[in-house]
Automatic annotation (TrEMBL):
Domain tRNA synthetases class I catalytic: 20-315
NCBIfam families: cysS
Presence of the UniProt keyword Disulfide bond in the record: no
Organism whose genome encodes this protein: Acidimicrobium ferrooxidans (strain DSM 10331 / JCM 15462 / NBRC 103882 / ICP)
Protein name, UniProt field: Cysteine--tRNA ligase
Keyword terms of this UniProt record: Aminoacyl-tRNA synthetase, ATP-binding, Ligase, Metal-binding, Nucleotide-binding, Protein biosynthesis, Zinc
Amino acid sequence: MRIYDTQAQRVVDLELRPGEEIKIYTCGITPYDAAHLGHAAVYVTFDVLARHLERHRQRARCVRNVTDVDDDILRKARELGTNYLDLAAMEIAQFDQDMTALGVRRPAVEPRATSAIAEILSLVQDLVDSGHAYEVDGWVYFSVASEPTFGSISHLDRDTMIALARERGGDPDDPRKHDPLDFVLWQPSLADEPAWESRFGPGRPGWHIECSALAMRELGPVVDIHGGGSDLIFPHHECEAAQSRAITGEPFVRHWVHVGMVRLDGVKMSKSLGNLVFVRELLKEVPAAVVRLALLSQHYRTSWDWTGGLLEEARERYGLWRAAGTGDGAVDEVDAALDNDLDTPGALEAIDRAARAGRGVSEAARMLGVEL
């Protein structure tokens, strides 16, 4: 199988070791609002990847975290006048319902950031002790100058990284930092925020350190495939890779895989902008398999615009496939398409051809997680 590796900046042969478990870590949701199509595109992609690996007798252990404590969820809980964990529980339940409807299988583990405070503090302490991090007034920062590989995931120049950090909550203007690109590992909590005791004072974790702690706890020091939306390449995955390598002394991830953004009217869907198409609303209009087919009609690496026309095309495709009945038409073609950098649009077209030729396509559809 070949897949695009973000760090290598090219399609590469996936490193598969026969008989060994493939370790996959996908960055999950911050549960303060409903799942939208951008989320669904990411998790459907990784679901198809895991299904394809398992079809070829590769055991896949999939881990997807939940960021249940960070600035966003605490701000939303404050606005609603509710406990942040109650808000998380409500949104996680809805998210799980939406993903199950879309045919996204549950990961082996869905660990929460709040479950790993001990591991997080241990990693932060190791980074301070080794000179990769420093403390200022209860804040602990990772020193990017201490890790020469910083920047090797995103391949961005310094000015671009600073601009993105400012846009995405990295606060490069923080006067406590030695370098604008240094990032928070631990921070003091505000009066109405949850706090855990530490040698640095009561506080809570920064964003990036949770994924290193959870991935290492659940999968070990090296992950085979790690990914999420392409908006996570910087700063999240860049920072995660740097701090993890500083801890273990070896590359944290063998293959970085990222999914393009879903746009609405040319603008990336995001909670902060409020320009969202929610999965739960689409499921009121069409069968879940139709939504999944609409997502699979776009190659995972591309960013694309959501339109109602895509849903209508998917509805027609679903009807065509169901009318074709059961059978193994297009199975080999779908297998070859998925081997070729998860070419789901090519796989759909192959199934369309088989269905129009009167061949049953239920087995090929199932390879994509679509039940007819």
